[in-house]
């Protein structure tokens, strides 16, 4: 055969990454939504390949934080004056929160943004990191860091929807996943905007139907995700006008 067994995992790791890269680039929104007049925030969706499969790194917010203490989220936060763009914000925040050096992230794309409960425009930035990355959580912001398979967000073992009232008083449903991390003997609840971004990322990369309902047209994922976002933005904008 002439091929040592050791070169196999490397070959498969490269192809797993390459496939994901190609899919993600099709969904790159660049700065298409950057000019919307909302305060800006960004999150980094850090992907890595472990045992031939894509995994995501997530954090647990410190219990001391005022906003959403103890919630699972991606590294990220509000834009600051020094940030050139959403990518800069995501990388700076990831460095502050988990010690991830910006040069260790291969940034692939920006996906369709979301709007959080504080009405920030939140841009998800997707990047690959090495599977050897050792997080150094900043205890003021992060109490835990964990890694989970991306595929869980289309084929979960434990899933439900939760009713959620948006800031406009509109009732909607959000994804809620429970993930048991056997390595750390802990269980994590991933829901809200974090779950929304993770599900979309998994849909983009795997191109498969999830085992639960999503509000996208899966045959036209690009246009339906952008339409969903613009409808959400329009409803927020209408409410702002009616409050004036």
Brief synopsis:
With 244 residues, this protein is an alpha+beta fold. It has helices at residues 7-26, 86-98, 192-206, 221-243, and strands at residues 40-50, 53-61, 72-73, 76-78, 106-110, 114-115, 121-128, 142-149, 159-165, 171-181, 186-191.
* Regions with little confidence, pLDDT below 50 for 5+ residues: 1-5
Number of E-type strands = 11
What characteristic shape results from the CA principal axes? globular
- The helix fraction, in percent, is 25-40%
Secondary-structure element string? HEEEEHEEEEEEEHH
Query: Helix- and strand-based class?
Result: alpha+beta
Main sheet characteristics? 8 strands, mixed
Radius of gyration, in Å, reads: 18 Å
Mean pLDDT equals 91
- Strand proportion, as a percent range, falls in 25-35%
What separation lies between the terminal Cα atoms?
Answer: 73 Å
Work out the helix count. Answer: 4
